[in-house]
Amino acid sequence: MKKSLLTLTPASRQLWSKKTKERTNIDYILIAELSNQKEIFFASNVKGEMEKQFSYNGHQELKEILITREKSTNLYQLELAFLNGESCKLEQNDFTLLVSCPYYDDSGKERRDSLFCFCIPEGINSTEIKQCYIPNDQKAETAFALFMLISVYVGGE
């Protein structure tokens, strides 16, 4: 039996995760090593300099991004569901995922929480998907800095 730890729907910009609960209007960046592709898979709804480093942005093709854990084996995996009906399960592959969740506090000031997930089996000698929730990350951009650092290792570079 699988337990869902994260569900991200790029088209509607909705997120549910065990760490953040339900969030809307999210921004995300995913960089993943897919076993059936030579190039690194990049998908993001954030426009900027990072997008220029990749030949293609798969954001428009993604239906859903899932992180699950198989209860019986305690195996974590990232699953990508595509609009064309195909899916891809990453059990031992490198990936980094950054989700940014904007919200307004009681005073009406905009805040931003971040959820950073990654798996680099050879780099950290673990197949477990690591998750780091960073509340009120708007000024420091700690999650983005971690994302950039870990992303250097995706694809064995």
Key features of this structure:
single chain, globular, 46% strand, 157 residues
Strand and helix map with partners:
Elements: E1 2-9, E2 14-17, E3 21-24, E4 27-32, E5 41-44, E6 62-70, E7 75-82, E8 87-90, E9 95-104, E10 110-119, H1 121-124, E11 130-134, H2 142-151
Antiparallel strand pairs: 1-2, 1-6, 2-3, 4-5, 4-9, 6-7, 7-8, 9-10, 10-11
Description of the molecule:
The chain has 157 residues and is mostly beta strands. 9% of the residues lie in helices and 46% in strands. It is built from 2 helices and 11 strands; from the N terminus they run ββββββββββαβα. The strands form 2 sheets. A 6-stranded antiparallel sheet has the order 3-2-1-6-7-8, with no helix packed on it. It has a 5-stranded antiparallel sheet with strand order 5-4-9-10-11, covered by helices on one side. β1 and β2 form a beta hairpin. The protein is globular and about 45 Å long. The relative contact order is 0.19. The mean pLDDT is 84.
